[in-house]
Amino acid sequence: MKAADPANVRKSRLFLLLIVLAFVAPMIVAGLLSWSGWQPGTKGNGEPILPQRNFVDEQLRVQLADGQPYAWRDSQPRLTLVALAGPDCAARCLATLTSMAAARVTLNRNQSRLRLLYLGTPPVDDARDGMRNYWQLGTDVDGKLAGFRPDAADSVSGLLVESNGTALSLYRAGFDPSGLRKDLQKVIK
Fold first, then answer.
1. Is the pLDDT assigned to residue 141 strictly greater than 70?
2. Of 140, 151, 144, nearest to 88 (Cα)?
3. CA 38 – CA 141 distance, rounded (Å)
4. DSSP of the chain
5. I need a labelling partner for 112 at 20 to 30 A (CA). Which of 9, 49, 131, 181 fits?
């Protein structure tokens, strides 16, 4: 039998090591990025609610306009988009509410997986503008959501709440409705 040439053996081993490295290196990089907390494409447009709050655990009571209590946990898994208007909700506030409702409509066949809840005094001419066709109207009985309500007149903020009552993200007054639409399309599939 012929002895192997040491130069060829080294070359073959180096080639094998490069092939293994080509497959292992991306996994190592992905593991390091994940370990550091970075996630690709997961940046939302809303601010995360920290510390996390669960409205069911807090027994946050919402009374609907018809006198019924609002159930944070529904019979089927659906998210809730809560609109909290500042004082004197008028034209700009109503335009934002309309954009929020339109974001629900863009979910197409999944729009039934998002409930719209408006807390506070309805805007002027809400019946004429058809707001009640899209939004459930209610009040925060104990005022536990006052910290999320904007102080500026004619403005509105939004809260996205998971189907188990956990508040996911806050959209402060002046938020971009197209960013909200993108976030809804990510979480409702």
1. yes
2. 151
3. 39
4. -PPPPHHHHHHHHHHHHHHHHHHHHHHHHHHHHHHTT--TT---SSEE-SS--BTTTTT--EEETTSPBP-SS-SS--EEEEEEE-SS--HHHHHHHHHHHHHHHTTGGGGGGEEEEEESSPPTTTTTTTHHHH-EEEEETT-TTGGGS--STT-EEEEEE-TTSBEEEEE-TT--HHHHHHHHHHH--
5. 49
For residue 91, CA distances in Å to 38, 98, 130, 134 come to 40, 10, 14, 17
Residue showing tokens 């938020």:
175
Helix axes 177-187, 91-105, angle to 10 degrees: 30
Cα angle value 67/188/157 (rounded, 5°): 55
Say how far apart CA 79 and CA 76 lie, in whole Å.
10
User: How far, CA to CA in Å, does 137 sit from each of 27, 48, 82, 121?
Assistant: 50, 25, 10, 9
| 150: its two tokens | 């904007």
pLDDT for position 93:
86
Check: CB of residue 187 under 8 Å from CB of residue 124: no
